[in-house]
Amino acid sequence: MADDIYPVPAEWARDALVDAAGHADQYRSSLDRADAYWLEQAGRLDWVTPPTRACESSFDEADFAIRWFGDGVLNVSANCLDRHLAERADAIALIWEPDDPAEAPRIFTYAELHAEVCRFANVLKQAGARRGDRITLYLPMIPEAAFAMLACARIGAIHSIVFGGFSPDALAGRITDCDSTIVVTADEGRRGGKRVPLKANVDAALDQSFSVKKVIVLRATGGAVPFDPARDIWYDEAAAKVSADCAPEPMNAEDPLFILYTSGSTGKPKGVLHTTGGYLLWASLTHQFVFDYRPGEVFWCSADIGWVTGHSYIVYGPLANGATTLMFEGVPTWPDASRVWRIVERHRVATLFTAPTLLRSLMKEGDDAVLVADRASLRLLGTVGEPINPEAWRWYHDVVGEGRCPIVDTWWQTETGGAMITPLPGAIDLKPGSATKPFFGVEPQIVDADGKILEGATEGNLVIARSWPGQMRTVWGDHERFFQTYFSTYRGKYFTGDGCRRDEDGYYWITGRVDDVINVSGHRMGTAEVESALVLHPKVAEAAVVGFPHDIKGQGIYAYVTLNAGEESSEPLRKELRDWVRTEIGPIATPDAIQFAPGLPKTRSGKIMRRILRKIAEGDVSSLGDTSTLADPSVVDDLVANRN
Ligand code: 6R9
């Protein structure tokens, strides 16, 4: 069957920043004369000392390094704020839409945002923060979260944002891993009319992590929270005493900007490190061209700032480009299923960038929930986080976008800093479900299990063959793990962990993770993390976790649990284990299904055969493949008979 193709609309071909010919030209130039091309692109940033060198990366073990613009000096917050003041001081930088739609939005011009960030930076300094220190941010989606990020960047401190939905244990692990000395949090968060006990979670986390000297607490709800005057600082009281002037610290392009923990296939979450120059260039360049951004337009990325999408497309990319960025505190289905579209109407949103899981959950509410809101301001739609099923794509295109708005399906990762395979709306015809073509400077390849490069229309594992400026630089504290995780599977190439198909038109179709990472509602979850949480429970002997297809979430979490001898399986225990994982990691890790299993299918060498567990979880029990190599093939019959 021929693919469904949505050609570039005529007005986009005519008016977009980049058309098809421009795309082809720039793409070629970005690969053929890479260093010159990237030094030119670097000119879009404001440098204290402009770089004279571009790429100095090598993916080979002998001289392994990821390095860009190594002699350049700049400050990220100056690029996001100060340099816009001459011409755009009164332009709107940030629009904040509160959880409760009855409350007024808060709006900040570039001049106001600049003052807020400088003040925040001075509060951090007064709390003892110095250049290079790690500062953990555990915050709700309030403007102060953006102030805090930019304030860290301003003084050269490294922020590590921990998603507000993570548990105290998960938070503690992330604080300890990078030895944060300061935590910034709020009394409570608000989501869908409910309160999230952020400060209480921080207190619990700090019972087990001892590097933290000061906790800065924002008053977000005014709720009563425990307060330790020796350690805790109310932000508003401290901010009233400091000035709104703070000179930006000149940073080397390769100085760290932030750490962001993400799940991998093994072990504990990795601290992905991004640095100053290359990351900002990538966030800014992709934001402008992927979204065809025009000054004055309202850009809304609906991600949480606790994920990389929020870092790059709520804060750094848009603000580097002098854009108006919208931040939403609440949940998209509260108070009702029209909330997202009401926000589009209220703030005249031009670009909406969201996740397929949200679209699927809103789609099932029916079209009327969309149609009640005026969406004439929308010009462009975007998705990220997981493959989008063509049905959701068409609904987004036809119903949400009234058939007018192109959709940019952007494939990328925490590790890549920004979009990597993505349409440019004026240049590339769309195929629902395909992330289409590589962005400038990105050289994707599809390889087989042995690393052989597959040409033409094919399917295999996705690797990137050369360095790009937004690439992560290391795993915090474990450079060896960085090399092993990403560069040892296929020598000389960055391995993404994703499977991918390329069609006869050279379009890329991401088929999902090929490692033990599952993608639940666009959030990455390592099966090993959920397993470790389960086996911490005193009644659990062993656990194996796999993903299975889920209508709304994309993938759900299916856990096989073997209890200790003498323990009885029961419904209350099933619930207890679900709650246990929620408490250990956070709600996003809650298993959708738990199957009690007297035994797990293992090879004679003791390796769990996940392939079989996946098939059973998917309900595909007719093709379990060869089970003869199992130590005890009869366990499979029991698993099949007792599927959830
Ligand atoms: C930005 C972000 C990365 C993983 C990635 C892939 C999946 C992201 C996608 C997509 C298909 C897309 N993914 N975007 N799959 N189409 N447009 O999501 O980062 O949280 O690190 O997740 O998400 O599997 O490897 P992160």
UniProtKB/TrEMBL annotation:
Keyword Nucleotide-binding carried by entry: yes
Annotated keywords: Acetylation, ATP-binding, Ligase, Magnesium, Metal-binding, Nucleotide-binding
Gene Ontology MF terms: acetate-CoA ligase activity; AMP binding; ATP binding; metal ion binding
E.C. no: 6.2.1.1
Residues binding CoA, per UniProt: 191-194, 309, 521, 582
Binding residues for ATP: 385-387, 409-414, 498, 513, 524
Gene3D superfamilies: 3.30.300.30, N-terminal domain of ligase-like
GO cellular component, one term: cytosol
Catalyzed chemical reaction(s): acetate + ATP + CoA = acetyl-CoA + AMP + diphosphate
Modification after translation (UniProt): Acetylated. Deacetylation by the SIR2-homolog deacetylase activates the enzyme.
Residues covered by the Acetyl-coenzyme A synthetase N-terminal domain: 25-80
NCBIfam families with a match to the protein in the record: Ac_CoA_lig_AcsA, PRK00174.1
HAMAP family linked to this entry: Ac_CoA_synth
Protein name: Acetyl-coenzyme A synthetase
Source species of the chain: Sphingomonas crocodyli
Gene: acs
